[in-house]
Amino acid sequence: MIMALDTSCYTTSVAIMDTAGRLICDVRRPLSVERGCRGLRQSEALFAHIRNLPGALAEAFAVCPAASLTRIAVSTRPRPESGSYMPVFTAGASAAETLSAALRLPLLGLSHQEGHIAAALWSAGLDWQEPFLACHLSGGTGELLLVTPLPAAVLPSAPAGRITPACSAAYTIEIIGDCDLPPGQFVDRVGVALGFDFPAGAALDRLAATAIKREFRLSGSVQGCSISFSGPESAAQRAISAGVEPAEIAAAVFANIGKSLRKAIASARELHHLRRVLLMGGVAASETLRSCLLRENLAFATAAFAGDNAVGLAALSKNIKIG
After folding, report:
1. What CATH number should be reported for the domain whose range is 183-304?
2. Fewer Cβ close by (within 10 Å): the C or N end of the chain?
3. Per-residue pLDDT tens digits for 89-98
4. Where are the chain's structural domains?
5. Which of 81, 110, 135 is nearest to 13 (CA)?
6. Above 80 in pLDDT, residue 300?
7. Which region, left, alpha or beta, applies to residue 91 given φ > 0 means left and ψ of -120 to 50 means alpha?
8. Is 80 exceeded by the pLDDT of residue 100?
9. Is the pTM of this model over 0.90?
10. How far is CA 136 from CA 75, 120, 253, in A?
């Protein structure tokens, strides 16, 4: 059995998976954000993870005893590259190091983004071994990626309680396009302005589904594989102040994201001569967005595993060998 921990913004996640890829346990505890606010400072989020972890781990161990574990995996950074860092990941890393030392188990350090890719592939039942494109759509990230799966790696073992660096052991990831404002922030800023709690994605998605006329539009800007959402977000805020019907604004937000993605993906497909595209991240869970992209022949993480979770880390680590 493999235990995985992820402490990104805004979910404390613990998952357990067996070596055949069957999910045994999936515990997620969202971080609380005060009503009307649009997020937490890193120090606040770090402290919230520290408070959440004991209960989340106890819940996981109630399902799967510690004695049945064979390794632990944890996200230690946002992306699999040198210099990638966010304080919140130290909460999960510290807890994982403590467990590794106490249980005398190997510990793999992966990245949050690699976990998203693996969770999306696992949840969709895909086993892509050739290069593909991926869109990471969340509150902290808006990136179009070129992902190249790597052969199964064999990593040197580290002493129990010490992290074996495993970032880039499964994929090489190149950013080929980005967003000036992550799409999740676009959604959350508009949602909070309309009176919803943060994170506002699910509520705004439900509101968008009630739009009738769908005549309100937000203009977008796409240059090659990169997208600007800051302009549409400002226009949406002006529309809220002007009294435009909230459901029409919500529908326009997702329509703008969908239209922009279609253009960026088309550019990436032409540039890199690849057809396969994977969408993951919390925004990719939107049913409204998915309906906007039905004709694009895209693969999505299932809605339950599009957002932050530790399941992908477990799925990824089971294929990495430790020498």
Report:
1. 3.30.420.40
2. C
3. 999 999 999 9
4. 2-128+150-171+305-322, 183-304
5. 110
6. yes
7. alpha
8. yes
9. yes
10. 16, 10, 17
